[in-house]
Specification:
The chain contains 8 helices and 20 strands. The protein is of the alpha/beta class. It has a domain of 190 residues: von Willebrand factor, type A domain (Rossmann fold, 3-Layer(aba) Sandwich), CATH 3.40.50.410.
Length: 373
C-alpha cells in the first residue's frame, strides 16, 4: 500500500492533466488544446427509469449555443459507432486526445468499459460504520461489468492508493479489506488527487466517493475540485451517511458537485441504504450513453457551457444528466496549498474564493437521491 503526501497538490493547477497537448510557456499561464470532448450521458423518463435504445440522431449537443456534430456514439458497453471522420487539422478519433482522455490505441478503448475510482473515507468519522461500509464497497466491486477497470483509494488526512486501476477484482478486494480507520478528513484534497489520476486514463471515467463526515482538513476549495472534474470529463458519485448530512454545508456541496459533473449524490440512513446506493451507481454506469465531438471554432477560452437535448415528441418528458461544461484553458492558479499531513493545530483554513460567473457549481442541473426508510 502506497501512502501519498499531499505536497504535490501545489502543482496540480500548473498542469491540467486531462488536456493534452500543453503548449510550453515562459509564464504561469497555460494554453490547452482540446480536440475531442467526451460526454457521459444518462437519460431517464418521468418515472426515473432509464431510456435505452436511443440513436445518435436522438441527441443534439450545444457548446456555448453552437450545435456540435457527434463523432462517436455508444450505449453502455455496446459496440462503438464511429459517425464522422475527424475535422481537418485534428487527429482521428482512433489516435487523438480527448477532453479527459489520453491517446487510446483503438476506438473501442476510448469508449468501451468504465474506469471506476473508488475513494473510501477512512477518517476518524468512520469508527462505528467501518465494517458495514467495507461490505457495501466489496459488493459493489464484485457487481461491476467485466469490461470495467477499478482503482481503490482511501483517505483521511492523506490519500492512500491502495489498488491502482486494474481489471483484477481480487487485488481490489484485498485492498478494501486492508483499510483501517484513523485521522481527520481531507476529502477535497484527496478527491482532487484522485481526479488527477482518473484524468490520465482513457475511456469513460467516474469517481465514487464514500464519505461519512464533513471535510475538516482540506486547503483546496470544492469549487476548484468540481471545475477540474468537469474539465477532465470525470463524473463524481457520492454516497454520504447521516453523519455527513448533519453538516448542511457539506450536503449542499455534495449535491452541487455531483450534479455539475453528471453524477449523483446519495444520503444513506443505514447500511442497507448504502448497498442500495452502490447498486444504483452500478446501474447508472450500465446505462450511460457516450457522446463525443470535436468542438467547432469558438473564441471563448474560458468556461464553455454544454447542453445536451433530446429530439422528438416521444422524448420530450425525458431528462438528461451530464456535465454542464468545461474550461479548455484553466484560469485559476492555487498557490496557497500546504502539506496537509502536518499534524500542527495551526493548519491554514480552507480558503473560500468568490464564485465567478460561469463557475461549475452555479446553476448546475443534475440529480441527487435521498434514501429514506
Amino acid at each position: 500500500m502506497k501512502r501519498v503526501s499531499l505536497l504535490p497538490l501545489i502543482s496540480l493547477f500548473l498542469v491540467l492533466a486531462n488536456h493534452t497537448p500543453l503548449e510550453a510557456q515562459s509564464t504561469p499561464d497555460i494554453r490547452v488544446v482540446v480536440n475531442l470532448v467526451q460526454l457521459n450521458v444518462a437519460v431517464t423518463d418521468k418515472k426515473g427509469n432509464y431510456v435505452t435504445g436511443l440513436k445518435p440522431s436522438d441527441f443534439v449537443i450545444l457548446e456555448d449555443g453552437i450545435q456540435e456534430k457527434q463523432v462517436v456514439f455508444a450505449e453502455g458497453n455496446e459496440p462503438v459507432q464511429r459517425l464522422l471522420d475527424s475535422p481537418a487539422g485534428t487527429p482521428a478519433a482512433t489516435d487523438g486526445h480527448s477532453s479527459g482522455s489520453s491517446s487510446p490505441s483503438t476506438l473501442s478503448e476510448l469508449i468501451n468499459g468504465a474506469n471506476v475510482f473508488v475513494l473510501f473515507d477512512t477518517s476518524d468519522y468512520m469508527y462505528r460504520g467501518f465494517v458495514f461500509a467495507q461490505d457495501a464497497i466489496t459488493e459493489f466491486i464484485r457487481s461491476l461489468e467485466t469490461a470495467d477497470k477499478i482503482a481503490f483509494y482511501s483517505y483521511s488526512r492523506d490519500l492512500s492508493r491502495a489498488a491502482p486501476l486494474t481489471p483484477d477484482r481480487g487485488q481490489v478486494l484485498r485492498a478494501v479489506r486492508s483499510t483501517v480507520a484513523g485521522d481527520q478528513a481531507a476529502l477535497y484534497n484527496c478527491l482532487l488527487l484522485t481526479l488527477r489520476d482518473a484524468a490520465q486514463s482513457t475511456g469513460r471515467k467516474v469517481v465514487v466517493v464514500f464519505s461519512n463526515g464533513p471535510d475538516n482538513s482540506s486547503v483546496v476549495p470544492p469549487e476548484d475540485v468540481a471545475e477540474f472534474a468537469q474539465s477532465a470529463g470525470v463524473s463524481i458519485y457520492m454516497i454520504s451517511t447521516q453523519q455527513a448530512k448533519l453538516e448542511p454545508v457539506s450536503t449542499a456541496v455534495f449535491d452541487r458537485m455531483t450534479a455539475a459533473t453528471g453524477g449523483k449524490a446519495y444520503f444513506a440512513k443505514n447500511w442497507r441504504d448504502e448497498h442500495i446506493a452502490f447498486a444504483s451507481i452500478r446501474d447508472d454506469l450500465k446505462h450511460l450513453y457516450s457522446l463525443s465531438y470535436y468542438p467547432k471554432a469558438n473564441a471563448n477560452n474560458g468556461w464553455r457551457n454544454i447542453t445536451v437535448k433530446l429530439v422528438g415528441d416521444r422524448l420530450k418528458d425525458c431528462k438528461v444528466r451530464t456535465r454542464n461544461g468545461y474550461r479548455p484553458q484553466p484560469s485559476r492558479f492555487y498557490p496557497g496549498l500546504t502539506n496537509t499531513s502536518d499534524s500542527s493545530p495551526d493548519r491554514a483554513p480552507m480558503p473560500q474564493p468568490a464564485m465567478s460567473e460561469g463557475s461549475p457549481l452555479h446553476d448546475s442541473t443534475g440529480a441527487n437521491e435521498v434514501i429514506e426508510r
